[in-house]
Amino acid sequence: MALKNINLSPRFTKHLVASRAFERKPLVTVDVGARGGFEEHWSCYGDQMKLIGFEADVNECERLNRQESGLGKRFYPVALHQNIGRRTFYCTAYPAGSGFYQPDMKQVQRFPDKVNLAVVKTIELDTAGFDSFASDNAIDYVDFLKLDTESTELDILKGAARSLKKSVIGLSIEIWFQPWHIGQPVFCDVYSFLRPLGFRLFDLALYRMSREALPEATPSLIPGPTKQGQVISGEALYLRDGASEIAAESILEDGWDDIKILKLASIMELFCLPDCAAELIQVAHRQGFIQNRDVNNLADLLVPGTGGKYVSYSSYLENIRNIKQRGYASNTQRAKSLIPLGIRKIIGVLLIKIRDKIDSILK
User: Fold this and answer.
1) What's the rounded Cα separation, in Å, for the pair 174 and 154?
2) DSSP string, 92-128
3) Same domain, 357 and 265
4) Can you tell me whether residue 297 is helix, strand or coil?
5) Same domain, 319 and 190
6) What positions does the domain Methyltransferase FkbM occupy (predicted)?
7) I need a surface site. Which of 16, 162, 310, 345 has the fewest CB within 10 A?
């Protein structure tokens, strides 16, 4: 699963990368459940980014390291969980559906996905907590976490609690509204864990699945999301509300500096939240951050384009004001056109009488 709102041409981010804004402290993204490789949109950071992947499938991990060696990328054949231990891993007919939670076949058989989630074998896997692994492998900080691990997302988050408090500013997490695995956490559990740590929900891609009783027609041999049906799962984007945190007492243990603020603003732009990025850099500037950069120019780069053309931030705001005024005038004129002239005159006379009556009372 993946978020649907991705900016494929992030002008603000490209400007920061071109100016080597993250050269001293690259953006570090960790992808847990990295089967298939890293998402393409991270490539806009070039050599100012480090990508760290975890994939429990040893063969897939070896393939990824061969395919994407160098360029600040590294994959580890490690199964992350809440802590060090040895746990049962359920291998399903569809490899990407395998995980530490056993599929609930009574629930799954109500949907077309029952064949792919059938357990074909179980194995015992050693697990590690992210914080302890990071400490042992010189992973000093993490900016962004992506988790897609077939229901163990909350377990992994608990094993990464120290990193979440210390440096993480954003997460992309597969979440479940309906439990397809026995004993798995659902969306409200993840939300309740992350909110006290300072993370807020900024975007949510929903995935539906039609029932087996009346399945939606699809040419794919692998059942997937449908246009209709019950909401089953999704991909949630959690970010820190940087504008709020830097104006008050920060929850982030590492604190905020120019680079951290620009990283968050850049991530906001990347996930189609330019309004949040604009607010962040404006608040940061007023609070004494990013003083060595042209804030007006940064704001200009966040303005959405129309037909490949862009205007300045100030011109954009002026255009918005004009549109609102024209819309108000237009709506008022349309309302008048629906009322016959004779009635409009009567209403006018009544309003004048009411005004005069109020004036006499006040006198």
Assistant:
1) 10
2) ESSGGG-BSS-B-HHHHTTSGGGTTT-EEEEEEEEEE
3) no
4) helix
5) no
6) 31-201
7) 345
Which residue has 């997460």 as its token pair?
171
Residue 352: give the domain boundaries.
Answer: 313-362
Task: Return the higher-pLDDT residue of 353 and 39.
Answer: 39
Both 160 and 19 in one domain: the answer is: yes
Domains held by the chain: number: 2
Angle at which helix 258-270 crosses helix 11-18, to 10 degrees, equals 140
- The distance from CA 121 to its chain's CA centroid, rounded to whole angstroms, is 34
The confidence score (pLDDT) of residue 360 equals 75
Tokens representing 148 are 């897609």
Question: Is 0.70 topped by the overall pTM?
Answer: yes
Task: Answer whether 54's CB lies under 8 Å from 33's CB.
Answer: yes
Burial (CB count <10 Å: 0-12, 13-18, 19+), residue 350: exposed
Report if residue 1 sits inside a domain: no
Helix (H) / strand (E) element for 221: namely none
- Say if residue 218 is in the same domain as residue 343: no
86 plus 132 within the same structural domain: yes
**β-strand pairing of 144-147 with 27-32:** parallel
Record the tokens describing residue 195, joined without a space. 């909110």
Tokens of 117: 């989630």
Domain harbouring 70, CATH code: 3.40.50.150
For residue 14, which of 62, 46, 60 has the smallest C-alpha distance? 46
**Are 38 and 60 spatial neighbours (Cβ–Cβ below 8 Å)?**
no
117 and 240 fall within a common domain: yes
Per residue in 271-327, pLDDT (tens digit) is 999 999 999 999 999 999 988 889 999 999 999 988 888 999 999 999 888 888 887
